[in-house]
Request: fold
Amino acid sequence: MAERGWKRFEASFTARPVVSWKHSILVFVACSGEYWQLSNKVWKRSSSRECFLSRNLFAATDVFTDPPASDLFQAYSGDQHFGFLLEKKLNQQLSAPSHPHRSISKLKFVGLSVAAALGATALLVARRAQRAERENPAAGKFLDISGVHLHYREWGEGKPLVLLHGNGTMVQDFEISGLITLLAREYRVVAFDRPGFGHTDRPRNRVWGPEAQSELFWHAIGRLGLEHAIVIGHSWGTMVALALALRHPESVRGLVLLSGYYFPSLRLEVPFAVVPAIPIIGDIMRYTISPLLGRLLARMVIRKLFSPLPVPHDFRERFPVALALRPSQIRANAAETALMVPAAAALSNRYGELHLPILIMAGSKDEIVNGERQSSRLHSMLPTSDLVWVEGAGHMVHHAAPEQLVDATRAMLNRPNSAERDPLTILPSASRDRRGAAASSES
Reply:
């Protein structure tokens, strides 16, 4: 802009014949101060797309035509040989001057609005979490072990049996399935809320992988007098059960592994599911967006867990979804999703050390874990294991066949050391089929 302005000045200055070189120098000296001020303005305002326009070139535009205020310039401005004008005016029709302070004000307004919305959402999430805890109070007892306030519930009498739930659930999952009622007829059943789930806290000063959790439950088993217990684990809980048997084999009588994840594999959901576990970003999400999204997606996720079988009516009515969507449990869920693949990779190198009775049970239509790549492969590595397929069942096999699970557990404990190597296929419970049909008709 400034360069074009100078060329126009130069062209207008030289467009007409000069009477004498003294005359032209006098006029130039008189105008140079005014022009220097104008040229500075051109350079300063060129970044704002402001420009000077010549009346001769843009006669139709709205411009000022006042010449510089120099007396000498006015004296010579009427001369026919040096009649030229320096015109200054911002062409506001072409480009308006920028106002950065207005942009900053808008950004501040947007930032404050977003902060206010996040703050209001955080208050809403906190109130819902408190209400969920009031409506679903801890029904069991607590142990304080290594800084963890560990919640557990106990039923029945007899040989000790420990239940470890999967990722995202809690003790209520086993209770709703009816499995605890059946087991309590002949075992002393103790079900734990694993760290971060239900009413057990999850301190942030350590990584709660299968090994760390197995140490926690080993201490709990000792405190409760549950030595030489049968340990039943579902989904992520199977890795904790395996780690417990590998680290403390004297404390475990037998393992029952339900819909487990035993070997590392590609999990496409991991990059998205682990975000709430990331510090700062995850903390913001857990108290704002994640619980709201979780509430919207809860039904879809639950259907996928049970698919292709329908969701049981009791589970839909009794499982405390609001408790599972608290920020603390969302963090535990995301953290275990992030740990799942590396944890399985670390444990899989030691499966050959297991020599105790093991029952492996999986659904033939599991949409969460590939049974052939996980359960069948583990069965092939463990000579003391039995493999039972629940035909047509999904990930929640303990809901699909609780009676058969109890029978298979009893048979595992009573058989000789050499396991039945051929996999056994069973059908879902008849009572489970009736409950599913009732749920389908109501929905």
Remarks:
- Residues 163 and 191 are 5 Å apart (CA to CA).
- The chain is about 50% helix and 10% strand.
- The chain has a mean pLDDT of 80.
